[in-house]
Amino acid sequence: LTQLFRPLDMLGWVYRTIRQGLIDMADMFRLMDTPVEVEDRPGAPALVVRRPVVTFDNVDFGYEEDRQILHKLSFEAPAGATVALVGPSGAGKSTIGRLLFRFYDPSAGRILIDGQDIREVTQASLRAHIGIVPQDSVLFNDTLGYNIAYGRDDATAEQIERAARDAAVLPLVELLPQGFDTEVGERGLKLSGGEKQRVAIARTLLKDPPILLLDEATSALDSRTEQDILATLKRVSADRTTIAIAHRLSTIADADIINVMDAGRIVESGSHFDLLRRDGLYAEMWNRQLSEETEVLAAE
Ligand code: ATP
Questions:
Q1: Three-state SS at 1
Q2: Cβ-count burial of 297 within 10 angstroms (0-12 exposed, 13-18 middle, 19+ buried)?
Q3: CB-based burial of residue 223 (10 Å sphere; 0-12 exposed, 13-18 middle, 19+ buried)?
Q4: What is the number of other CB atoms lying within 10 angstroms of the CB of residue 41?
Q5: Cys bridge to 131: 85, 163, 209, 267, which one at CB 3.0-4.6 A?
Q6: Is any atom of ligand 1 closer than 6 Å to the C-beta of 97?
Q7: DSSP letter assigned to residue 7
Q8: 69 lines ligand 1 (CB under 6 A)
Q9: What are the residue boundaries of the ABC transporter domain, all occurrences included (predicted)?
Q10: How many CB atoms neighbour CB 145 within 10 A?
Q11: Minimal CA–CA distance to 69: which of 263, 269, 246?
Q12: Which of 63, 101, 289 to mutate to test the pocket of ligand 1 (most atoms within 8 A of CB)?
């Protein structure tokens, strides 16, 4: 019987999650893989954000009891700043995003937004304040307009158009005879990786969150598309507190603070030039990526 109820429970949870307008996180966190671990405290108030400061304060965390992933991790993202997380694969970068969304709670330490412990506020209010632009955006089998307005039932046609313009989706829309009413997804128009990502950016713009979590695509976009997307993201993150998870260092070289992670710890922190001067892990990663890019250019 348990075997029957567990999938039903999961379906119920997925449904509630979708109802809360959270489906845009599915790509990043693989919804079905994410256990239901965290519940709102009874009577929890909503998060109130005046200054979107994000603080990780001595956070310990492991997915399994006998394997700790984050070790006394502390960092701050000041209001309006862009803070990058870089480091080798498996260092714990995406885990930080999952904790900020409260898919899991730390085993020790605290995560604060504008001084409020995120365990003490409702998850719906927490997630309403954070926009995600995931690595690989998944679209619904519906119209382009629906995909942009998703989670904002009250959006007007003007607001949708403005978000599309700011995310550089409008040139695409204008080429389509049915414009925003064009069906996209499996049964409709197939969009490229870059176009899908722009739709995700437009959706985030419409949500207008004070905090952004950017998860850089590992899948290669061609370099011109990548430059376009980066320029768009730069505009979008300008007035927001942004946490950017990056694989290619060139995309975050101008971040206000770069936190270099290794095996669940922040091992270096500073601006690009601070870190190059320090001649440690960041400088090593930077030089390696530079020589790889030079090799690629030489081969072309
Ligand atoms: P990448 O650059 O490859 O995306 P990352 O720095 O984002 O890596 P995380 O995804 O945060 O790394 O993973 C950190 C560690 O946690 C890894 O060792 C990974 O195997 C482990 N891990 C991630 N998700 C889970 C999970 N759901 N259950 C158990 N372990 C997990």
A1: coil
A2: exposed
A3: exposed
A4: 10
A5: 209
A6: no
A7: H
A8: yes
A9: 54-288
A10: 20
A11: 263
A12: 63
Is residue 165 within 8 A of residue 217, CB to CB? The reply is: no
- Edge to edge, the sheet with strand 54-61 lists 70-77, 54-61, 108-113, 116-117
- The pair of three-digit structure tokens given for residue 98, joined into one six-digit string: 């999952």
Task: Give this complex's ipTM.
Answer: 0.97
Closest CA to 235 of 82, 22, 46: 82
**In the block, which residue shows the tokens 């695509």?**
217
Q: What is the pLDDT along the chain (300 residues), one digit of tens a residue?
A: 555 555 555 555 555 555 444 444 544 454 444 555 788 999 999 999 999 999 999 999 999 989 999 999 999 999 999 999 999 989 999 999 999 999 999 999 999 999 999 999 999 999 999 998 876 677 888 999 999 998 788 899 999 999 999 888 998 899 999 999 999 987 778 888 888 888 988 998 898 899 999 887 555 566 777 777 788 888 888 889 999 998 888 888 999 999 999 999 999 999 999 999 999 999 999 999 888 877 766 666
Write the single-letter amino acid at 286.
W
The CA 92 to ligand 1 mean position distance, Å, reads 6
Using CA atoms, how far apart are residues 174 and 216, in angstroms rounded to an integer? 27
Instruction: Using CB atoms within 10 Å of the CB of residue 133, give its burial: 0 to 12 exposed, 13 to 18 middle, 19+ buried.
Output: buried
Question: Quick one: which atom of ligand 1 is closest to the CA of 91?
Answer: 6
63 lines ligand 1 (CB under 6 A): yes
Residue 99 sits at φ, ψ, to 5 deg, of: -70, -40
Neighbouring CB atoms inside 10 A of 236's CB total: 21
Q: Which two tokens stand for residue 142?
A: 């519906």
CA distance 117 to 183: 42
Tokens of 104: 């899991």
Specify the pairing of strand 241-245 against strand 82-86.
parallel
Query: The whole model's pTM is what?
Result: 0.83
